[in-house]
Structure formats: C-alpha cells, structure tokens
Design a protein that fits this description.
Length: about 150
C-alpha cells in the first residue's frame, strides 16, 4: 500500500488588528482563503519553510515568533502534519504569483469569522489565529533540530 506524509508550514501574520490571508488559485481549492502556508520542501527546516511560504505567497518578509498550532489530519492513504507559526511583519511588499494565488488581503478577526464558508480549512485557520491572538503558543526553542 502506498501512503504519503505531508508536512505543511504556515504563518499567522498580524498588522493593525488584521490578519493576512491568501486566496488560493489551484483547482482543488480555488477561491478559498487560507493562511500563507504550504508544503515543506526537501532539505528545508520548518522555520525556513514557513518564512519561504509567507514570502512566496504574500511578498512579505516575516520573523517567526512562536508556534501557535500543530495539527494532524489522517486520510485513507495520506497523513498531514501542520506547524503554524505566529510571525511579525518585517517588510510588507504585497506581491504574488497569480498562477498560485488569486489575491492577498488583510482581514479583521470579525471579518474572518463571518467568511467561514470561504475558508480553505476552518479549524486550522481559526484555531491558529485564536491561539496567536490569545497567547496560546509555544516558544520556538521547543523545536529540536537533529
């Protein structure tokens, strides 16, 4: 039986009480809003992967601050593990590849709550933002690289 494990990394980016979301372009989730996130590349740490995904999907540079969510999803032949960080905006330069992302916008928490049906993964997005917002986080030092 063939099975695969996928590691997803992403970042909750906040500015002026708003959160940065990306609108997906790929067919399987076209038009859905998501945190800047994606698959970890080979030979990449979760820290480097999260910063890369934020930059690729939004054009913004971020500093990772804490871990705000670790998730796990099991499907018939696939396992997903997600590590979502909270991050500080270092440099805002909204730009993106229109083949992968349709739009990048700042939303208030209340706006995100009323657009639940437009979110790609409601629990992952809302829990990550809630944890970052309420300080339910773990320090980066909890991650060991070996």
């Amino acid at each position: 039986m063939n099975s695969s494990t996928n590691v997803i990394v992403g970042v909750v980016i906040k500015k002026d009480d708003k959160y940065l979301l990306v609108q997906e372009a790929k067919a399987s989730c076209r038009g859905k809003w998501n945190l800047p996130a994606g698959h970890l590349d080979p030979n990449e740490t979760i820290f480097a992967g999260a910063k890369r995904e934020a930059k690729e999907e939004t054009g913004c540079e971020v500093e990772l601050v804490n871990i705000c969510q670790i998730g796990n999803r099991v499907l018939s032949n696939e396992v997903f593990v997600s590590v979502i960080f909270s991050g500080n905006l270092i440099h805002e330069n909204i730009s993106f590849n229109q083949q992968e992302i349709l739009d990048v916008r700042w939303f208030s928490y209340d706006e995100i709550l009323v657009m639940k049906d437009q979110l790609r993964n409601i629990p992952l997005i809302l829990e990550s933002i809630d944890h970052a917002k309420n300080g339910i986080t773990a320090p980066l030092g909890i991650v060991s690289q070996y």
